[in-house]
Design a protein that fits this description.
- The complex is a heterodimer of chains A (258) and B (209).
- Chain A has ten helices and six strands; from the N terminus they run αααβαβαβαβαβαβαα.
- Chain A is an alpha/beta fold and 258 residues long.
- In chain A, α5 links the parallel β2 and β3.
- The two termini of chain A are 14 Å apart.
- Among the domains of chain B are: 67 residues; 73 residues, no CATH class.
- Helices cover 83% and strands 0% of the residues of chain B.
- Chain B has seven helices and no strands.
- The chains are: A alpha/beta (258), B mainly alpha (209).
Chain lengths: 258, 209
């Protein structure tokens, strides 16, 4: 192992670059292979995730009661390391906004980072425009609360306490301020679906959410809610890479120990 | 036709930009480095413009609330007054955000308010912990036992009850807890890579109508 690293170092290649290159070499052919298999008619079963299944119920309840669904895209943006989590939140928002508009359920989407606001507004506008009788239904509202995480949490707490929301969906990047929002949701007896990736926040999510999207489950939105072959193939690649990494770790431990 | 062209152009720009940045990660090249730096500068400018749009959105949302006399509209009035005051203070002094007046507002209004809200977390942790540790399943039971060991391992009382409790706490934090966290981090990293690649390949297009 040391000799490989030395060889790479002499060639001006860092270990991170080499690892990323290997991952890319593995990902692209696998993605193409699984996508072509799915196009050819192969079926890949997906394990049920309750959080995705319950979204429809929440939107239906909101349509019946007229109470809005609140969706938070977290405190992340799209020009920093939280981009992937924010995009996962946006993918879920696209589904929720389309369903809510179709059912006539009011939807309020909140963001903290201003870079996410145009995307959230565009997603809600797109969902509204696809409705055949768009002028008879309410366009989902996307609004920014505050760029500061604590101030954002305070704003969401105000929405949960004051606007009598039917459900609270939160998917994106969250820090310790999540607890302020999650606990307020519990105190207001609002059903909550939360997706987070930070291991330090997950215990808080476990304590407050009715249904969770833990870590990598957040990134499975496309495969579950917009089941296009390439999204399911992407999920399959994720699973295979995980097995590959586990085997590499086990092999590394054995090689070091023996 | 126009829409389709605009859409294809947006996707082409995304793919081209993404590939340039990715190439700079793998290849050491001065031209690529400069291109990446320029793109990052543009991203910062766009983020600043987005902040301005965000401020307009905040003002519009609260004006609607005030006009509609919706519950809590008085707080919206306070928010707009505070926003206007700080912006005015920044504009009146040539030093802008570094002016003493803006710094005073930040240090003696913003920071204490932020700390006050964040202090609520302590109480919220207590009620969340109570709920999390209620034994409803095998998982909750394991969590409860681990929680009690870690809690007692931090205090002298725990040592008095069992002298090896600190070692047990260290073991829980070093092995099951770290192992679980790393498993989640690995899964998230893979999800992030695949999400990035899907955007790069034009499969996911959150930015295109």
């Amino acid at each position: 192992m040391d000799s490989i690293l030395e060889l790479l170092g002499n060639s001006g290649i860092t270990a991170t670059q080499a690892l990323m290159f290997i991952l890319l070499l593995l990902v692209l052919p696998l993605l193409a292979l699984f996508a072509s298999q799915l196009h050819a008619g192969k079926r890949i079963p997906l394990r049920p995730i309750r959080a995705f299944e319950r979204l429809g119920t929440f939107i239906g309840q909101s349509a019946e009661t007229g109470q809005p669904v609140h969706m938070s895209l977290g405190v992340g943006g799209i020009v920093d390391p939280s981009t992937a989590e924010s995009l996962a939140g946006l993918a879920l928002m696209e589904h929720v906004a389309t369903e809510a508009t179709a059912c006539g359920a009011p939807l309020t989407v909140t963001v903290s980072d201003p870079t996410l606001l145009p995307l959230a507004q565009d997603t809600s506008r797109r969902a509204w425009e696809t409705h055949p009788y768009q002028y008879q239904v309410q366009e989902p509202e996307a609004r920014m609360i505050a760029p500061d995480a604590t101030a954002y949490a305070a704003g969401v707490m105000d929405i949960l306490l004051g606007e009598r929301v039917a459900a609270n969906i939160m998917v994106g990047r969250f820090g310790p301020e999540y607890l302020l929002m999650g606990e307020t949701g519990v105190k207001c007896r609002v059903p909550q679906v939360v997706g987070a990736a930070d291991p330090q926040v997950l215990p808080f999510v476990h304590a407050t959410a009715d249904d969770m999207l833990l870590g990598e489950e957040m990134f499975a939105v496309g495969a579950y809610l917009r089941p296009r072959p390439v999204h399911i193939a992407s999920l399959r690649v994720q699973d295979w890479l995980r097995v590959f990494l586990i085997l590499t770790i086990v092999l590394g431990v054995l090689l070091r120990s023996l | 036709m126009k829409v389709k062209f605009g859409r294809s152009l947006a996707i082409a720009i995304t793919i081209g930009t993404g590939l340039l940045v990715l190439a700079n990660f793998f290849v050491r090249n001065e031209f690529l480095r400069r291109v990446q730096q320029t793109l990052l500068d543009w991203a910062l400018i766009l983020a600043a413009v987005a902040l301005l749009l965000g401020a307009v959105n905040v003002v519009a949302t609260h004006l609607r609330k005030i006009r509609g006399r919706r519950p809590g509209w008085v707080y919206s009035l306070f928010l707009l007054a505070a926003l206007g005051t700080v912006v005015l203070l920044g504009f009146l002094d040539p030093r802008g955000v570094a002016s003493p007046a803006v710094s005073w507002v930040f240090l003696y209004v913003h920071v204490p308010l932020q700390a006050t809200i964040f202090a609520l977390t302590a109480f919220f942790i207590a009620s969340a912990a109570y709920r999390a540790f209620r034994v409803r399943s095998v998982d909750s039971f394991i969590m409860l036992v681990a929680g009690i060991i870690v809690l007692l391992g931090q205090v002298p009382l725990g040592q008095a009850i069992w002298d090896r409790i600190a070692a047990a706490k260290d073991w829980i934090l070093a092995y099951p807890s770290t192992g679980g966290a790393r498993g989640i981090i690995l899964g998230v990293a893979l999800g992030t890579i695949l999400t990035g690649l899907r955007v790069l390949l034009g499969i996911d297009r959150p930015h295109v109508k």
